[in-house]
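[Solved] Which block belongs to which protein?

Original post:
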Amino acid sequence: MFSTGNSGTLATTREDSLEALSIGAVYLLCTWAGPRFLVNSAGQSPSLASADTVYGLALLTLPPLGLLATLVAKDPSRPLWRALYPGPEEPVAGVILLAGLASLLLNAFDLWPWVWRWQVGAVAYMASILSRGDWIAVIVWLVWGCIFVPLVEEVVFRFGALRFLQQFTSTKAAIAGSSLLFGVSHLGLDLHPDRYQLLNAAWATVFGVVLSYLTVRRSGGIAAAVIAHSARNAVESFSLLISIAIVRR
């Protein structure tokens, strides 16, 4: 079921995986430690400090993206570029539909509630940006959360961690290990996570298994995983915007 022994398997080396993991190290440093420098003088949460925070968070994504672009540009024939490139057989519409529908259903039954439903002040923060008509900030926020973040995380956890672990253990164990790392990364640096943070990390782990399975089924290509991840994030993000628009009517 999880075999990748076909002739179309994407050949990668340990160096390829380590380069992807190095992108992950930069990404985690920027997205975990970086926001602490965005806290304002009043000591507000980084995500709620000011309308400019969304630009700051987006800028923190540029270092890992720059490293990714450098590695790909250095040699377009590298496995990383081929892994990112969607093939003609990619079920784009189906992946988007299933990921979006799953997110809607899990949220509706309170199994995996969207982050903005339980993150303190998230709705008020985005409502304040919309009330000022700062549409550039909204677009930056959407591109950051629905394109940049999924792209970098899939490179790190599916191309990097999954492929790296496959060199030392079975594919099933590699899927489990990389997915667990993906879930734990969603806890951030909080040493005392609450119920919702733990729930979010648990479901992120399950989602990681699905994304890893998509990657393995496509012989190491991560295009389908990136699309599914983006679709899931997009449903959550646009639901926030729609809910705010309904309340403001």
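(Second protein starts here: sequence line, then its structure tokens.)
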Amino acid sequence: MTWPAAPLPPAPGGVPDFLTHRQVSEGGQGMATTSQTEVPAIDGWFTTGDEPALIGTRCAACGTVMFPPSAASYCRNPRCDSESLEAAELSRTGRIWSYTDARYQPPPPYIPRTDPYVPFALVAVELEAEGIVVLGQVADGYTVDDLAIGAEVELVVEPLYEDDDTTTRTIWKWKPTGTTSREVSA
């Protein structure tokens, strides 16, 4: 079963294609080479590459940062009446504010990566510089046993699902760095 990419609005001001798409070659010497295209499952919400980042919206007047990016033409801060918004690359690291695991398979349009379904961890990550909390899955290979409130995580991009023989849809996830808030303050 295949599902199309989510029809969500791109970030205000758009995100250049070179930030969101990349080609990955597979194969080896003497083998036919196939090209697998990695494409964000939600266009305009994050970049890919060696140092991926979430793309939010920043109000040019008051500096309020919003994620996900919005197609709305007004600041979400109730004390600001500005309509001047710009795309903003958000911090790549943050601290776990809360976490849980998805023990039960979500309903469609969720696409399970394995059959049978394998539970995965979810985190709410506080981006200190922006003053916001962003939700996301935990990187592959990590469970709630690897998480702690206040622990540092970094943004990574991993496959979400394949929608045909040549396209892998990707999504941002949070990977534990092994640093806790106690280690940082010591």
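Accepted answer:
You had them paired correctly. Confirming on the second one: Residues 17-185 form one domain.
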